[in-house]
Structure to design on (404 residues):
């Protein structure tokens, strides 16, 4: 299908994006064909008049999950037991619904961290084969080096077991590996796992919550750090020597802070995350943005709130965070030549909104159109969690009032 999106006000996703008014975006099948002035002859295209609405590249979520809806559990730890998912078909349907919700909220590319990889891979493949409309998905397998309550996360405790699992992941066409590590894990096994994952052409995301675990991840070749820890000069040096990037994720930490019996833990994690990102920013270490969707208090449609948290904690402009969630996030994935900005030749991943997100980020919460690889979704409708939305609105007021 060839579309001509006329009367578009373009925010192109680049670092210095400014509104480009009265433009036409031409798409041809899955790609952007050209960006032209409003005098261009659109004969041969299906014309859609945007009436001067704002058009941005699709959003990119670097850290997402698809196993739950993000409801606050009022202090009770989430149970990963199989009873939460009565059947494989039910789990698959939920995963499809959550992926679709991401798309309807403007996320056209996402990195899924791997809690339920069998469903995620099926959904990824259905999207790629155009059996369903959804975001471009990079899917992981999640692996730990110590027993966890989630039986869907593989645990490896020796080299032979690790090699067997990596061969299995490659056979399943896992896109990348997510490692959960803590201070007591075997560093030699961590090193071997990262080396062998790279040998199997898989990048490695490492989730850490301490300075020691962060050092282990950086010293042994992690491709990305999820969350992070307090950083010393040696951490900084290692970041600068490696092509490793940091993924900042505040929404789940805010979710903890909102619950009375987890408030102190949430507060400490927020402070740690802020410190980590401030250090990265001060030393030109690459930082991407993810939402942590599915975790408590984190829905599949609120990426704009994650941007608002970044703006709040780091005194950034709307322009800064919009760049981070588009072209900058694409660069962290090595996909900046095909997604992340509105340019001829890139995938036609576009979102359209009536209000200007450079003035108010909440403009991203109400979209008129979403286009993913040239497939147009008109007037997406998301059933939002009213009680949670009100609590999150109050939470932002609390952050501002308490100068957290």
């Amino acid at each position: 299908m060839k579309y001509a999106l006329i009367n578009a006000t373009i925010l192109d996703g680049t670092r210095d994006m400014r509104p480009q008014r009265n433009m036409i975006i031409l798409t041809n099948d899955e790609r952007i064909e050209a960006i032209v002035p409003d005098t261009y002859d659109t004969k041969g295209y299906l014309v859609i008049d945007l009436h001067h609405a704002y058009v941005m590249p699709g959003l990119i979520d670097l850290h997402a999950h698809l196993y739950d809806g993000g409801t606050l559990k009022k202090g009770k730890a989430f149970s990963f037991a199989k009873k939460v998912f009565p059947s494989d078909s039910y789990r698959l349907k939920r995963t499809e619904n959550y992926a679709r919700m991401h798309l309807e909220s403007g996320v056209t590319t996402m990195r899924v961290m791997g809690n339920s990889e069998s469903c995620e891979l099926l959904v990824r493949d259905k999207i790629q084969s155009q059996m369903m409309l959804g975001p471009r998905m990079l899917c992981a397998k999640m692996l730990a080096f110590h027993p966890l309550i989630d039986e869907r996360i593989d645990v490896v405790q020796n080299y032979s077991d690790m090699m067997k699992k990596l061969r299995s992941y490659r056979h399943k066409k896992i896109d990348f590996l997510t490692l959960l590590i803590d201070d007591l894990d075997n560093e030699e096994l961590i090193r071997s796992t990262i080396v062998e994952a790279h040998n199997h052409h898989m990048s490695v995301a490492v989730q850490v919550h301490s300075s020691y675990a962060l050092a282990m991840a950086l010293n042994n070749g992690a491709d990305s750090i999820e969350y992070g820890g307090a950083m010393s000069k040696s951490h900084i040096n290692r970041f600068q020597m490696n092509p490793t990037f940091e993924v900042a994720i505040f929404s789940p930490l805010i979710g903890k802070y909102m619950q009375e019996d987890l408030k102190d833990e949430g507060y400490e994690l927020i402070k740690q995350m802020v410190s980590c990102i401030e250090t990265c920013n001060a030393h030109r270490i690459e930082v991407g943005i993810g939402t942590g969707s599915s975790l408590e208090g984190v829905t599949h449609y609120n990426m704009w709130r994650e941007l608002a948290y970044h703006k709040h904690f780091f005194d950034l402009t709307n322009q800064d965070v919009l760049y981070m969630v588009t072209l900058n996030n694409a660069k962290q994935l090595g996909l900046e030549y095909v997604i992340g900005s509105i340019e001829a030749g890139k995938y036609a991943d576009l979102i359209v909104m009536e209000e200007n997100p450079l003035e108010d980020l909440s403009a991203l919460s109400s979209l008129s159109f979403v286009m993913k690889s040239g497939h147009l979704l008109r007037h997406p409708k998301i059933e939002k969690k009213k009680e949670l939305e009100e609590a999150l609105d109050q939470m932002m007021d609390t952050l501002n009032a308490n100068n957290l």
